[in-house]
Amino acid sequence: xxxxxxxxxxxxxxxxxxxxxxxxxxxxxxxxxxxxxxxxxxx
Length: 43
Description:
The protein is mainly α. The protein contains one helix and no strands.
């Protein structure tokens, strides 16, 4: 599974399905970079 855990792979699949159905279209901030106030835990 190319380094993904089963949970990672499941989450990715669900996200891809939601994108395909258009469920993530038109969200606030779409197309703009995230503004992260505290990114110390992001690796």
